[in-house]
Design brief:
The protein is mainly alpha-helical and 205 residues long. The protein has a single domain (24-204), classed as Aminoglycoside phosphotransferase (APH), C-terminal lobe (Aminoglycoside 3'-phosphotransferase, Chain: A, domain 2). It has seven helices and six strands. The chain has helices at residues 33-46, 62-70, 83-92, 131-145, 150-154, 161-181, 188-204, and strands spanning 4-5, 19-20, 101-104, 111-112, 120-121, 126-129. The strands form three sheets. A two-stranded antiparallel sheet has the order 1-2. It has a two-stranded antiparallel sheet with strand order 3-6. A two-stranded antiparallel sheet has the order 4-5. The two termini are 33 Å apart. The mean pLDDT is 90.
C-alpha cells in the first residue's frame, strides 16, 4: 500500500483530503483477476490481528448502510425497479459462520498492477467482515461490470460459505447503487435484469 503523506504543516488531512505517495501501475482488473485476488489475500493476512476501528459504527454513507443490510443488521428501501432482485436475494440469504476482521471492501478497481512489480492496493475501504466476503465483492463486481472469466465464479465452490458470501456481496452492491442514486432515480429494467442475471449465476454456481 502507498505510504500516507503529510502536508507542509504536518497535517494528515487537509480540508477533508489525504495524500499518499505515487506508485506506478494500472488499475482495472480485466484479465488480471488472479492478481487482484492474490493482492487482497496478502493484505488481509497482514491485517488479521488488527483491532476493529471504532469509527466503523459511526459511518452512515450509502456503502456502510448497504453493508449492514447485506449482513442483516438493518433494513433499507431501494428504488422500485430493484425491489424484485433484492427480495430474491434476501430470500436466499442464510446464516453463515466466518471470522470477521479488517478487510478492504472495494478491491476490484483498486489494485495497481505493473509488470515485474508487486501489486499495490490503493484507496483502502475498511469493513469488519470475513476475508471471503471481500473476495466475494470482487467476484460480484466482475460479474456486474467487468469481464470476469466464468472459471473464477466456480473456483472455491467447495466451500459451503462461498455462495452465501456472494449473495451478501450482491445485496451490498444493489443497496449501495440505490442509495447513491437516491429515491428519484429510475434504475430501469436494464439494471434490474443485470442483478437478476448475476443472482441466477450465483445460484447455479
Amino acid at each position: 500500500m502507498p505510504r500516507p503523506l503529510r502536508s507542509a504543516d504536518g497535517d494528515a488531512v487537509v480540508h477533508g483530503w489525504t495524500a499518499a505517495e505515487f506508485l506506478d501501475g494500472r488499475t482495472g482488473p480485466q484479465r488480471q483477476w488472479s492478481g487482484v485476488l492474490a493482492a487482497g489475500r496478502a493484505l488481509h493476512a497482514a491485517l488479521r490481528e488488527e483491532p476493529r476501528p471504532d469509527f466503523l459504527d459511526r459511518r452512515t454513507h450509502p456503502w456502510a448502510v448497504a453493508d449492514r443490510v447485506a449482513w442483516g443488521e438493518r433494513e433499507s428501501d431501494v428504488v422500485a425497479e430493484l425491489a424484485e432482485p433484492l427480495a430474491l436475494l434476501l430470500s436466499r440469504r442464510r446464516p453463515v459462520e466466518a471470522t470477521a476482521q479488517l478487510v478492504h471492501g472495494d478491491l476490484a478497481g483498486n489494485v495497481l498492477l505493473a509488470p515485474g512489480r508487486d501489486p499495490v492496493v490503493i484507496d483502502f475501504t475498511p469493513y469488519w467482515r470475513p476475508p471471503l466476503y471481500a473476495e466475494a465483492v470482487v467476484i460480484v463486481d466482475g460479474l456486474l461490470w467487468y469481464d470476469l472469466p466464468p472459471g473464477l465464479l466456480a473456483a472455491g465452490a467447495g466451500d459451503p460459505r462461498r455462495r452465501q458470501m456472494l449473495i451478501r456481496a450482491l445485496i451490498f452492491r444493489l443497496v449501495a447503487l440505490s442509495g447513491l442514486a437516491g429515491p428519484s432515480w429510475s434504475a430501469g429494467e436494464k439494471e434490474a435484469a443485470r442483478f437478476l442475471t448475476v443472482a441466477e449465476a450465483i445460484e447455479r454456481g
